[in-house]
Amino acid sequence: MELTKYYYKAYGLSIGSEIPIPPLETSKVTTVDLTIKRRRLLESPPLGSTKVHRAGLNARFAQNSHNCLWLDWSPLVAFMAINGNELLVETTENDAELIALFTLSEALGLVLFQKNYFLLHGSAVQIGGQGIIFLGEPGAGKSTTVAAFAQKGVSVVSDDMVCIHINESGSPKLIPSFSQIKIWENSVVGLQLQKENLSLVREGTTKFSWHDSIVFEENPVPLKQIFVLTNPKDSVRLPGELPKSQVPVELISYFPLPDALLNGVALKDYFEKSVVLAQRVPVLKMNRPEDFAKLYEFVEHLKKCYQ
User: Fold this and answer.
1) What distance in Å separates the CA atoms of residue 269 and residue 249, rounded to the nearest whole number?
2) Do 129 and 194 fall into the same domain?
3) pTM above the 0.90 mark?
């Protein structure tokens, strides 16, 4: 019996789902790349701890092969990704927004990983037909930076997780995620965004989702530049381009999924792709703009550089 009720697009995938997944907009699709089902999961191998943290919970992870991965946020929700084309969801929750919060993060990342995309914990925009990525530790200002660009009419490619496709010739392209930026209240105030145009995110009472009025890029974008944002109070003044030999080590620190995934062949593949990126894309470390006025100056500077 056909239970699929909802159809969406995200990360270049046509998705058929048995559960609603806000804030994705429904889409008309003829073929489905990924099916999301609400099911009781098969028993997993022993689950190990991870650094993956969401809504106050650290996920646990297990795998029995590259083609069957578990991510468990008990007691709220657990996922199993199979063969890069099926995502099973087990939960007793009926709050669609809460389930979507977990589904559209690392759970969907498992599927993208199985499809051999290169993933980074970061945010990205498109300026003049070129993709710009912002990386950094939690709180570095990645989403705030992207929100500032969005205010100036720049297209958003992704927030929170960046998906890169590297073709056979080594050319990297950003795969757009979905229309949403998640920002904390202090950034909402600093950017002078109207709260009535935003919605609260379940991760925290002071985190907001902005998705209704931003310009969202829908097509793959050639990757032009990567910025790594650091504390504005760092004694070393930046920006400065990283030597190509340092780029792979830098990028692997921003892998958004459980570290246990990067072993054996998968680790070799991730490292080789990072070497390709190092050869093709400049990676600059820079001090995060220390206030919102300087952030807007940075936005205008990059717009002039790439438009």
Assistant:
1) 14
2) yes
3) yes
